[in-house]
Amino acid sequence: MTTKSASQxxxxxxxxxxxxxxxxxxxxxxxxxxxxxxxxxxxxxTGQLNEVAEKLIGDAGAEALFKGVVNxxxxxxxxxxxxxxxxxxxxxxxxxxxxxxxxxxxSIDCGVRIDGFCGDSARTVAxxxxxxxxxxxxxxxxxxxxxxxxxxxxGRMWSEVATAIQKKVESAGMSVVREFVGHGIxxxxxxxxxxxxxxxxxxKKSDFCLEEGMTLAVEPMVTLGASDVMYADADxxxxxxxxxxxxxxxxxxxxxxxxxxxxxxxx
Length: 267
Ligand code: MG
Ligand code: MG
Prior knowledge:
Layout (H helix, E strand, L loop, with lengths): L4 E2 L5 E2 L2 H24 L6 H14 L3 E2 L17 E5 L2 E3 L13 E10 L2 E10 L5 H20 L6 H13 L4 E2 L5 E3 L6 E5 L19 E4 L2 E3 L5 E3 L7 E3 L5 E3 L2 E6 L2 E4 L4
Antiparallel strand pairs: 1-2, 3-6, 4-6, 5-14, 6-7, 8-12, 9-10, 9-11, 11-16, 12-15, 13-14, 16-17
Helix pairs in contact: 1-2, 3-4
The chain binds magnesium ion (2 copies).
């Protein structure tokens, strides 16, 4: 399990044994998200959801990846196992005493490490009834991730996959967030390469070819309005849309295998 072969641009390829461990980490993330998403209802606080997640992760003997993460811009280390981002919050929402209301949407992001390897996945769910536009935001974002995964075959350039995500989103009149992107994942939550959800000329140099043994976290973040985002406040954790439009976030960790893409963060 110590074999590490570097491919393009510092990307660490994983052996099939390593991918097996990552499937275990991914399965736990899936179980936590299934459980926590099932508890989402009007009146529940994001802090309560985080408590449940922390217990499940602890009971499984796993490490909660997000807890204690230091961001030099932020005023404190990330305090929770989940990121819980509500409505116009795109990512990195901090769980607390915010109670969910009917018509809200909640993005839940979870990452764990088991036996030295990581899994990272996110989903956005509706709280009670939401408008047609918001339902469409969730389904388009989820579908853009599914579309990306289906395209993740050995020999494909990432730019082709990213273009497919971007087209799916933009043809629905929505926007892809550009300031935050997916990433390689393995022994560390964030490895090379950067995995953007759009493609333009600025991405040309960082494009890469999908190879067997690559493990990538793909995570489209989509807004109903413009793509611009900013910090919600001086704490410098929570990222919100600049125009206040709702945002959705779906993520899976995926291995590229000779037999096609394998979703690691599945049951
Ligand atoms: Mg994540
Ligand atoms: Mg991620």
